[in-house]
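call fold(seq) -> tokens
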Amino acid sequence: AAAAAAGSSAATEPEVGGKESDGFAVVGRNVRRLVRKAIVDTAMILSQEHVSVDATRSATGNSATTAAAATPAATASALVTLGDSLAGSDRFLSGSESITDTGSSVDNETAECAQNVLELYERALQVLQGDAEARAPNSNTTPLNQPTESQRAHILSKMGATLQRVGERAKALTWYQDALQLSLDSRRRQTCAGPLDPQTAEAYSRVIVLLEETGEYDKALDLYKQSLREGMRGEEGADAGAFGWTVWRQDDNGNRLQIEAGLSHRAALQLVAHFEHLGHKQHYWAASG
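ret:
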């Protein structure tokens, strides 16, 4: 009888505990949802007020109205920081890691959190864009105070990373490509030459990696070659043969194939390293002449 009673108790206790755990889980989800909503709503109100002040400044041409207000760059930075905080929350990290590790579909709360993060990043872009448009008619504006392609590219990249973490690879690729184009526009507008700056290099890398993950190997390789040539701009120097390097491949049958010609030594070595990193069985090497 005692054993039966113990068995009966053991059988019923998990059910009661399970119901209580489910109840707490529901409460926890609702609380987190309300907190995220409050953060996003407050951020939207404050940033909208800031955008409205910028509109007034644009119409009047008077910057005195914003003397006591946060600068657009500071407002955008605050919005991005809030987005980063939500993206770095334990709940979002665990939910997105589950998608990456198991290939499972995104749960509702993780999807909602991702949407909140994207809303904050998008608002940051709107603040920067609105400020650029407000400043355009004022020729006395200091260029250093204007939002740059680099700032916007940084935010677009974050949006792509958020979407990639919840399995939205196609949408993530679009944002990554936009970030790359802005980084290139900024680089070329400043007539930069030589090795890629860290932001442009990262933008290339994000697009290339995602293309490879989705099986678009030819597009990934073409883009990698483009990145090498972009980094070669301004490398000519005094050496007429600076771009006389070629990358070759030898297959299992001993056949040699030219992969890319007209590269600098540095770019050729980088391309060889790229193929080796991919784990190709064929032999790759760089040669001059």
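The mean pLDDT is 76.
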